[in-house]
Every structure is written in structure tokens, then in C-alpha cells.
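We emphasize that the prediction below concerns an isolated chain of 141 residues; any contacts that depend on oligomerization or on bound cofactors are therefore not represented. The input was used exactly as deposited, without trimming of termini.
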Amino acid sequence: MREHVRQAYTVLVIGPSLGAGDLAALCARVDDARRDLPPGSDLVVLCDVGTLTRPDLAGLDVLARLRLHTARAGGSLRLWRAGPHLRLLLELTGLRSVLPSFPGSADEFGLLAAHEHGRQAEQREQPLGVEEVVDPGDPPG
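Result of the prediction step, given as a C-alpha cell string:
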């Protein structure tokens, strides 16, 4: 028989800006949520980042540290309503898997632009009149 584990969600509304000075208060809210958690429940922290106006690396650092603090408290952290600039910043820094989005957001359905997923541009024919020059000194291959 499979045991059912309840998830307790805590929503942290973040924005319009986020900096290093915000980390202590956010960690304290995670600690409070952990203390108030019903027995046998898993803590899931949803960070509503929909109001972040200008996401930057400093804010991303705070989110990564908050995720680490949440994991140490026995919970998990998910971003909710991440805008295109934040999603692109996550992709460029390689933190997309570290700071995943809550299921149901555009990010989870693969609606990011093609360049945000690192897809290649479609193949195109060579322009007419362009010839490749081969240097006789180049080795074959």
C-alpha cells in the first residue's frame, strides 16, 4: 500500500525588487512555515516572482540561497509566475534545474522561446554564388 504524503504550500510574494537584504526575512518565513507544518507533511515553498520588475544576478543569488535554506529545512522551492526575463536569466546561468517552476506555468509547458532552450536555427541553403576555398596545404578530412 502506498503511503499518501501531504504537501503544505507556503507562498512567498517576492518583488518588485530582490536583493541580499531580503534573504534573512525570507529565510525566517520559511522557518516559520516549517514550524507550523502539520505532522507528516512536506513543505513546498512557492515563490511568486511575477512582480519582479528587473530580475538580476543579485536577485538570482537570493533565490538560489533561499532554495538551499528551504532544502536544509526539509522542503522544496518552486518559482511561480516567472516572467520571460527571469526565465532567460535562469537558462543563461544554468540555474533552471536548480530553481524549477511550479507545474502549470508557461515554463513547464515548453513555451519558452527557441533560443532559451538552446535549439538550433533551422537549416538553410547556402547562398548562391558562394564557393568554399580549399587551401592546398590543409590536411584532408
